[in-house]
């Protein structure tokens, strides 16, 4: 049995351990910094066998080299076309390729937008989706390198997965994201309910991951480009049409300056 353990790093990053207690082994998705990950491994007497990298930003790969030094032979996995930007990479994947970690098959989904080499990892057998800075609880990553068209297509690809898929995102931005979402859709009851839950979680110091794709589809304005209210809000913020890309782009620009 493998379970997911979120490890808070820095102010609001998460690294995710995929822990196989019986084997005493674990994989990790993203290594913002090594120390909290090494501490969590030591505490549980776990050996790290694989590191899956969602994208090259320092607050996702900053701990790669220290982890590789601590665990010789560590598999450091990332997208083939972004290999030059991922420290310590040992194994590259193309879009749609699988890698086996702690006895589970993880599929690499290339989801450009936040960066051109951003990927998500889908563990279909468990219904887990590790979304890096592509899809957040109630939000999505900024467009640092890719176009709005690319990001919208990437998000649409994720949103098409099963509604009960658990979404493990790389930053604890959910409360702030939902406050913005409520400006886009002030009358969405699912959004109001989620915000109340998230507020209670944050007050209690509890993580808001994982969400589910069903929950994101119901409350995340960056997946709701087809909703009349979201289209109206996009038009009020510069969208000149109602295609998914135009609606998405206008909401994203609005949030960047909100
Ligand atoms: Zn990033």
Q: How would you portray this structure in words?
A:
The protein is α/β, with parallel strands linked by helices and 258 residues long. The protein has one domain (2-216): Ribonuclease Z/Hydroxyacylglutathione hydrolase-like (Metallo-beta-lactamase, Chain A, 4-Layer Sandwich). Helices cover 34% and strands 26% of the residues. It contains nine helices and 14 strands. The chain has helices at residues 34-43, 58-61, 64-70, 148-159, 174-184, 189-203, 213-219, 228-236, 244-257, and strands at 2-9, 13-20, 25-29, 47-52, 75-79, 91-93, 98-101, 104-110, 119-123, 128-132, 135-136, 139-140, 166-169, 211-212. The chain has a six-stranded mixed beta sheet, covered by helices on one side. It has a six-stranded mixed beta sheet with strand order 7-8-9-10-13-14. Strand 8 (104-110) and strand 9 form a beta hairpin. Helix 4 crosses helix 9 and helix 5 (174-184) runs antiparallel to helix 6. 48% of the residues are buried. The model has no long low-confidence stretch (mean pLDDT 98). Bound molecules: zinc ion (ZN). Zinc ion binds next to loops. Residues 55, 57, 114, 133 line the site of zinc ion.
Q: Return the domain count.
A: 1
Contiguous uncertain segments of 5+ residues:
none
Helix content: 25-40%
Cα separation of the termini: 43 Å
The mean pLDDT is 98
The CATH topology, please?
Answer: Metallo-beta-lactamase, Chain A
CATH architecture: 4-Layer Sandwich
CATH secondary-structure class: Alpha Beta
Order of helices and strands: EEEHEHHEEEEEEEEHEHHEHHH
* Portion in strands: 25-35%
Largest sheet: 6 strands, mixed
Number of strands: 14
User: If helices are DSSP runs of H or I spanning 4 or more residues, what is the number of helices?
Assistant: 9
Are any ligands bound, and if so which?
zinc ion
Report Rg: 18 Å
